[in-house]
TrEMBL record:
Signal peptide positions (record): none
Record-annotated membrane-spanning stretches: none
GO molecular function, one term: 2-polyprenyl-6-hydroxyphenol methylase activity
Originating organism: Nonomuraea purpurea
Name of this protein: Class I SAM-dependent methyltransferase
Enzyme Commission number(s) from the entry: 2.1.1.222, 2.1.1.64
Keyword line: Methyltransferase, Transferase
Origin: domain of life: Bacteria
UniProt cross-references to Pfam families, sorted A to Z: Methyltransf_12
All copies of domain Methyltransferase type, residue ranges: 56-149
Amino acid sequence: MDYLTTNRANWNARVPIHVDSDFYDVNGFKANGRSILRPFEVAEVGDVSGRRLAHLQCHLGLDTLSWARLGAEVTGLDFSDAAIDQARAIAADCGIPARFVTADVYDAVEALGETYDIVYTGLGALVWLPELTRWAEAVAALLKPGGFLYLSEFHPFPQVLDEETGTTVTYDYFDRGPHVWEEPHTYTGGRLIESHTSVQFQHSIGDVVSAVAAAGLRVDFLHEHDHTLFCRFATMSGDHTGYRLPEGAPRIPLMFSLRASAGLPRLSDEAS
């Protein structure tokens, strides 16, 4: 299966549903002037004032524009032309200067043609990539010396657990796929009229760290978090700020965040 064409059609079909959804609350984002980034992301990235930031796989660009509201000079990239059209329109309505580019993430270096202080990849992005080596190489090429990748993602471990209680190992952690899904609904609750098929790929924590290290980036930290942004298991409680397993239950990692830095050039490299 041509995963790229299939997934692009699927995400283009999702865009109008997502724009109108309560989940994204685009009108609220335009009106309130706030960032929708998670508090741990803002704390771990630090001050972005005046820094150039590229957001890969940016979808509607709300996270991208949230970094801009915190002071960054932002560029967003996504393979969905429908999503990029909406991102540009939202930026214009908000009066936020931002650049949005349509391209596959593997082609980001050529498509963007610039380097950045920060490359950001947000939640739910990596499952759409068949392998991470090319992704990490693209990230490294986009970074200025001394810049860093910041990745915020759903943890792969919960994927092996039963969906009711999250206590029984049901699926294979090392089954990387491809996994083909036929789903007439999107995670915002809306119904897709067409392009129901999507293709996803599972990556272990080891896959992520190894790809980043092989691209020449230095891992500064890998943090695992005991909460997530949706009701992953029926036993969870919470709201959009965080869902957790019942109090007293053993905790498991539900999200993770990683920061990895590009090295400064050596004197010998500069001389050459």
